[in-house]
């Protein structure tokens, strides 16, 4: 049956496929797991290794010097132009160099852009790569030594994308800058919107995360491939400390990884000319981009994402099919709240597999470059199961910036399609906010951050009677103890005008 599907797809491709159709011909993932960080290589070399492995995957000798554009996803490293280093190392010194801003959405957004350029004939052979060495950096800090860093001077030929403001005055005034503070606020808002108890909610979410762990066990490129039970995930322990209510460590993105990845994208006519086996071809069918209101304070609520919903609807419209029919799905998974919001907005059941890697906790979370790993894994699965389709979602900021893509080993019925839904999102109402409110309010959602000695501070998003949103904090230990054991969403509070609330 698989051979019949494959033959039909190739026959259709030979007859009618646009020769400029973009196609992924090579993928690679590299994991550096060393007890002694001094024996490893830095992200630059990890990118080069991934590029070389990507070329081997494509099955074409001498392909790397032919690359026209080297595109590097921004990392926490401080290289000025790592793309130039990679281009020189792979023998393509004349290649264009492209960099991106921070954001977990950037890989899919850049792939959407690259596919459009290839379709238009503006580019012909593109390498995307990225790497992080958070594991080695953590080992170095613990060991009291510094890792070598290569100087990469210069500027990119092209700066792709815009960082955009991730937090506004109201959030920053109360210290709401870290993802580990904001995403659990979304999580508690999800619980309250569903009418769940704290216990029932934690059970459901830990079971969701255990299913992600099970996928990691079957992923040869997962950082933590040993499956965890739901009870292990939700139960605090010496190795699973509470981080921010309701999340213990095993519900957070695992950034302490040394991981790199690479993708090779070209046109069908160039793939043919290079002699890339058709068994390696995986096509980007369509993609979308859009961002929710940048400031969380301006959003209608804290448990939904209009940008994901509109992106999904537009993607389904372009494809002419429901996204629930995708064979492989990877919902961006920095925290469980991101997965739940994404699945709900896209009409996907939480009971179905929602990751191909194991997610950023178990598959590994190399920060902005995670989605390159989820695309690479999707390509592998589409190759292994010809005719199947995969959906990949990407998320940057505080559930802010979104990019979606669909892939298949089967040739698309139409040229690659892309849509930007920003106009629709921008037309949606924006909630008003205030910073230093004095008086009554109602807690909309909240979290409690933990320190070395237990709960340290509580953050609350509050709604005023006139509909405005504000933020307030509490450091009273008796209140914090109640906040992690009782439902505080919906509770009336008094704010003192300096950003402190009392119950």
Give the N-terminus to C-terminus distance in angstroms: 64 Å
The biggest beta sheet reads:
6 strands, mixed
- In quaternary terms, these chains amount to single chain
- Secondary-structure-based class equals alpha/beta
Shape: globular
Strand runs, count: 18
Spatial strand sequence of the major β-sheet:
1-8-4-2-3-5
Taken as a percent bin, the fraction of beta residues is: 15-25%
Number of helices: 16
Q: On the 0-100 scale, what is the average pLDDT?
A: 96
Q: Low-confidence spans: pLDDT under 50, at least 5 residues?
A: 1-7
Roughly what percent helix?
A: 25-40%
Determine Rg (CA atoms, Å): 23 Å
Protein architecture, described:
The protein has 503 residues and is of the alpha/beta class. 34% of the residues lie in helices and 22% in strands. The protein has a six-stranded mixed sheet with strand order 1-8-4-2-3-5, sandwiched between helices. Strands 10-11-12-9-13 form a five-stranded mixed sheet, with helices on both faces. Strand 6 and strand 7 form a beta hairpin. The longest helix has 20 residues, at 198-217.
Give structural attributes.
503 residues; alpha/beta; 6-stranded mixed sheet; 5-stranded mixed sheet; 16 helices; 18 strands; 34% helix; globular; disordered N terminus
């Amino acid at each position: 049956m698989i051979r019949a599907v494959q033959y039909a797809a190739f026959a259709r491709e030979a007859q009618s496929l646009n020769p400029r159709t973009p196609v992924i011909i090579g993928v690679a993932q590299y994991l550096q797991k060393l007890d002694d960080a001094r024996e490893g290589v830095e992200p630059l070399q990890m990118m080069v290794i991934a590029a070389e492995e990507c070329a081997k995957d494509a099955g074409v000798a001498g392909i790397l010097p032919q690359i026209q554009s080297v595109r590097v996803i921004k990392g926490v490293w401080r290289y000025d132009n790592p793309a130039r280093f990679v281009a020189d190392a792979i023998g393509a010194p004349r290649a264009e160099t492209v960099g991106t801003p921070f954001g977990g959405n950037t890989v899919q957004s850049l792939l959407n852009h690259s596919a459009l350029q290839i379709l238009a004939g503006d580019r012909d052979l593109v390498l995307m790569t990225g790497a992080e060495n958070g594991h080695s950096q953590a080992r170095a800090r613990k060991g009291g030594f510094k890792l070598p860093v290569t100087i990469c001077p210069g500027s990119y030929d092209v700066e792709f994308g815009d960082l955009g403001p991730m937090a506004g005055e109201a959030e920053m005034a109360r210290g709401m800058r870290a993802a580990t503070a904001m995403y659990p606020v979304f999580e508690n808002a999800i619980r309250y919107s569903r009418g769940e108890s704290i216990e029932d909610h934690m059970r459901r979410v830990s079971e969701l995360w255990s299913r992600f762990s099970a996928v990691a066990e079957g992923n040869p490129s997962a950082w933590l491939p040993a499956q965890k039970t739901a009870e292990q995930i939700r139960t605090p322990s010496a190795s699973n400390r509470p981080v921010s209510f309701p999340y213990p460590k095993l519900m957070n993105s695992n950034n302490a990884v040394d991981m790199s990845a690479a993708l090779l994208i070209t046109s069908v006519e160039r793939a043919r000319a290079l002699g890339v086996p058709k068994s390696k071809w995986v096509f980007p069918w369509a993609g979308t981009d859009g961002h929710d209101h940048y400031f969380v304070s301006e959003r209608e609520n804290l448990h939904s994402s209009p940008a994901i919903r509109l992106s999904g609807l537009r993607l389904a419209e372009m494809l002419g099919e429901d996204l629930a029919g995708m064979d492989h799905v990877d919902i961006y998974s920095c925290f469980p709240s991101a997965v739940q919001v994404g699945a709900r907005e896209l009409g996907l059941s939480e009971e179905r597999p929602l990751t191909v890697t194991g997610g950023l906790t178990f598959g590994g979370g190399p920060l902005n470059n995670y989605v390159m790993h989820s695309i690479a894994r999707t390509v592998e699965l589409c190759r292994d199961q010809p005719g199947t389709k995969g959906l990949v979602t990407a998320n940057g900021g505080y559930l802010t910036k979104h990019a979606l893509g669909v892939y298949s080993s089967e040739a698309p019925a139409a040229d690659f399609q892309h849509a930007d839904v920003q106009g629709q999102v921008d037309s949606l109402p924006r909630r008003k906010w205030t910073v230093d409110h004095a008086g009554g309010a109602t807690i909309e959602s909240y979290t409690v951050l933990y320190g070395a000695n237990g709960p340290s501070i509580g953050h609350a998003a509050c709604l005023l009677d006139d509909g405005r949103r504000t933020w307030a904090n509490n450091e009273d230990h008796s209140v914090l103890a109640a906040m992690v054991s009782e439902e505080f969403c919906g509770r009336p509070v008094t704010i003192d005008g300096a950003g402190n609330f009392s119950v």
